Amino acid sequence: MLEVRELTVRYGALTIVDGLSFCVREGEWLMIVGPNGAGKSTALGAVTQAVPYTGSVLLDGEDVKKMKPAQRARKMGVLMQKNFAGYAFTVEEVVRLGRYAYAPGVLSGHGAEDTEAVEEALKRTGLTAQRGQSVLTLSGGELQRTFLAQVLAQRPRLLLLDEPTNHLDLVYQKQVFELVGEWLRTPGRAVVSVVHDLSLAKAFGTRALLLDHGKTAAMGPVGEVLCPEKLDGVYNMDVSAWMRKMLGQWE
After folding, report:
1. What pLDDT score does 245 carry?
2. Residue 17: enclosing H or E segment and its boundaries?
3. d(CA 166, CA 133)
């Protein structure tokens, strides 16, 4: 589905992502992990076309860089870690914005398929009861679920998530990841996530890409990558001991 070849991002003389290559197949959830400054969000930003890069990003064999924005939005949905709601739109109005890529014109109305997609997204994210509520009154978790519903209303085949639960509490983290996991069960779909929390990466991912200073340190099944032999050298610490210490406080 997604193929990234020799992806490189430079800011002046500084190389942030250095020759990154990876593939994501249907049914996979790829977790991109690594310490701060490893290039995780920059790499994902390049895939979404938000960051200039060299190399190639192919989706279903097509060069994403050559796609028109509406065509790209029908194939891939992007959810960032922080989303801004500056106007008193209702939840439903925000979710309907996800159908913009399918509109034949700026002032086009909503067809039956648009309504169906919005209703499905609201139901899947548990927001049907809040559909008429202003987004300015939502909690952080409800707001993030609203933007997730907007992305799902696009009906993409690929989800790209940049730390989607970074600022949420444990309950909302669980809700968002379980919602994405449920969405992924439909054949023909895939997910790529940037994640700091290694526990979430291991619990929900099928494969992992470990980055270190913009380069691939390890890639493969999540259990083979998120192991002490791979993690300790990149994080410069005994990751397993630290995790046991933290979790042990609750025993």
Report:
1. 63
2. strand 14-24
3. 24
Q: In the structure encoding, which two tokens stand for residue 126, read together?
A: 């548990």
Instruction: Output the CA–CA distances (angstroms, integers) from residue 124 to 47, 127, 174, in the order listed.
Output: 26, 8, 15
Q: Which domains does the chain have, with CATH numbers?
A: 1-60+159-165+191-250 (3.40.50.300), 70-156 (3.40.50.300)
State how far the alpha carbon of 34 is from the alpha carbons of 1, 136, 194, 209, in Å.
Answer: 24, 34, 9, 8
What residue type is 165 in one-letter code? T
In whole angstroms, what is the distance from residue 118 CA to residue 120 CA? Answer: 5
Residue matched to tokens 């065509």: 71
In one-letter notation, the amino acid at residue 243 is M
Divide the 251 residues of the chain into consecutive groups of 10 and give the mean pLDDT of each group. 96 93 96 93 94 95 93 92 76 92 66 91 91 90 89 95 82 86 94 91 94 94 90 82 61 46
pLDDT at 45: 94
Q: Cα dihedral angle (31, 101, 133, 175), rounded to 10 degrees? A: -20
- Please state the pTM of the whole predicted model: 0.88
Q: What DSSP element (H or E) covers 98?
A: none
Q: Which token pair is 179?
A: 């919602």
The whole-angstrom separation of Cα 233 and Cα 192 is 24
Sign of the CA dihedral with 227 first, then 10, 4, and 30 last: positive
Return the amino acid letter for 4. Answer: V
